[in-house]
Amino acid sequence: MRVVVIGANGQLGSDICQILKNKYDIIQLIQPDIEITDKNSIKKTLDPYKGDLIINTAAYHDLKKCEENPQIAFAVNAIASRDLACWCLKNNSILLHVSTDYVFDGKRQKGNPYIETDIAEPLNTYGISKLAGEHYIESILNKYIIIRVSGLYGIHPCIGKPGKNFVEMFISLIDTKETQEFGGQEWLTPTSTKNIANQLIPLIESNQYGIFHVTNEGECSWFEFGEEIIRQIGSSTILIHRKEESQKDPLAIKRPKYSVLENKRLKDLGINIMPHWKDALKEYLQIRKNK
Question: Are 136 and 78 spatial neighbours (Cβ–Cβ below 8 Å)?
Answer without folding.
Answer: yes
